Amino acid sequence: xxxxxxxxxxxxxxxxxxxxxxxxxxxxxxxxxxxxxxxxxxxxxxxxxxxxxxxxxxxxxxxxxxxxxxxxxxxxxxxxxxxxxxxxxxxxxxxxxxxxxxxxxxxxxxxxxxxxxxxxxxxxxxxxxxxxxxxxxxxxxxxxxxxxxxxxxxxxxxxxxxxxxxxxxxxxxxxxxxxxxxxxxxxxxxxxxxxxxxxxxxxxxxxxxxxxxxxxxxxxxxxxxxxxxxxxxxxxxxxxxxxxxxxxxxxxxxxxxxxxxxxxxxxxxxxxxxxxxxxxxxxxxxxxxxxxxxxxxxxxxxxxxxxxxxxxxxxxxxxxxxxxxxxxxxxxxxxxxxxxxxxxxxxxxxxxxxxxxxxxxxxxxxxxxxxxxxxxxxxxxxxxxxxxxxxxxxxxxxxxxxxxxxxxxxxxxxxxxxxxxxxxxxxxxxxxxxxxxxxxxxxxxxxxxxxxxxxxxxxxxxxxxxxxxxxxxxxxxxxxxxxxxxxxxxxxxxxxxxxxxxxxxxxxxxxxxxxxxxxxxxxxxxxxxxxxxxxxxxxxxxxxxxxxxxxxxxxxxxxxxxxxxxxxxxxxxxxxxxxxxxxxxxxxxxxxxxxxxxxxxxxxxxxxxxxxxxxxxxxxxxxxxxxxxxxxxxxxxxxxxxxxxxxxxxxxxxxxxxxxxxxxxxxxxxxxxxxxxxxxxxxxxxxxxxxxxxxxxxxxxxxxxxxxxxxxxxxxxxxxxxxxx
Length: 725
Prior knowledge:
Mean pLDDT is 82; it is low at 148-153, 222-226, 688-699, 705-715 and 717-725. It contains 24 helices and 20 strands. The strands form 5 sheets. Strands 14-18-19-20-17-16-15 form a 7-stranded antiparallel beta sheet, with helices on one face. The longest helix is centred in the last third of the chain and has 38 residues, at 614-651. Helix content is 41%, strand content 17%. Strand 1 and strand 2 form a beta hairpin. With 725 residues, the protein is of the alpha+beta class.
């Protein structure tokens, strides 16, 4: 039961607290557990005006209670203001008015123009209007039922209008209006409003409530039906790719409105307001899909990894440092020179987003697939200096530049390759890193070129001074050194934090990369196939003739193959060869890849013994041992072959006739021929086919081969040097 305490509308605490029979607290109509009530009191969500004692109950300030608690109390016990004004009713209309929680909830849930809600004062106003109109309709219904069979004329709407206006004078004990409605005061206008409400109610209660909402809050029912056609025309004009200004849109709209007999727009401010209202649906047409995606589509917010080698991103950066470049050409038989001072280098940066460490880079004239591969090679090789061996990243991201060409390369480098969405610069954190490098390092240099063309003019350098001092703009080599120095400082600044992050990296994210995988993924090719001979693999790159070979015995078995060669331009000490389709065949030169060998550059041994050191003799011994093992392998093959042939002769005597001993008069060392031929035939006739026993030494050992020029002496190097020098 509500009451007035200290000039405030209050309720008893037990009306709120759910009944607790053990503690004799609360009431059956209560809806808040006692513990929750105490928590709300501590948090200030319930203001206690009077504490409970032996002879008095706790009193709560109703207006300071949380909105949902007040709403629940009204649903159960009624509106305290209406209950307090019960004794002060002035008309039968007040008796017919009832509280509608459903109407209040509808106006609270109502949304318009992209999710906007009604202001609190409008919710209270519309809810009061519903209560009064429902009361008016109740009296109207009673009048119609009571007037059946009566004569005379009763001015119903004049009487109802008086009572509706009289409600504005009804106030609660605090002096506030109990029914703050905004219904019309004139009988005819009130009748039209109530009848409109009653007609809409036949389609549903919410339809009736919608008639009370002003058209400024997106209520279509409050607008003319023809406005839907004109709104479509206006929407189309504001979403055209021409991006018409408001005056142009108004002019075109008025032409259509005149043809359709509709009202014209008199001010371009109306178009401005509509553009703001319809920006969500017109931006893609006026500004493009990229602008729409950046402004309105929901973004995925990410955070950087805390473990190194987890996520790499790369992009090309046109460095904001100017250099001069002189071009010479012949014109009219004379040499002409033209020097420009607005040239800039391009650096492809590979960034580990953990600590924003520049793990790799490459500098060139413009971004290209070759420059990107060079930067990634630099990054992978830099891991040797950092961690002691070569590693590859877990994931790598790039833009969509040359995607078809670069995608296989990135997929071979990292376990996961994730290209950035087209046009979504927000997904590339490296763009912000370029801005950091520009302000942290480049802007402090005298040859700084400024920010991008979209930046404000007041942020750019003084172009007049740059033009006057253009003769001091450095050359290309100096700017390249500046860029290398910037990357070196960044690495030095962040190396400790990056190594600490590497110590946190889990083993499953550490992906070692051996030489074969490295060259297979990142090596450059010669653009043609090569052959390998006994002299090794001969290549000529950059005017240098290089020879490569391997100590793998199986390579000698594939000298008839064509080979694709992969190499690292920064380290020509080794190459990777992979077999390809032979020349003259279909798809000649296409890589097969089922044979791969890592070849190392041959060591050149000085001709003079005095010039050879211990490493040279160790290498010669290694070559000698390899050649000996190759000869031993061939000798073993010949021995096995001879044993097999001897076995065949014993099992099948017919194979002896017509052999070399029959066709050629080749004598043995004692000049005998017939005895050897007769002995072989006799051995063939006496062979046992059920069980073949071979005596040790049946096949003659192959004759020793003469040594080559490289094995015709054995030398004690130290003795030679001590004796002769």
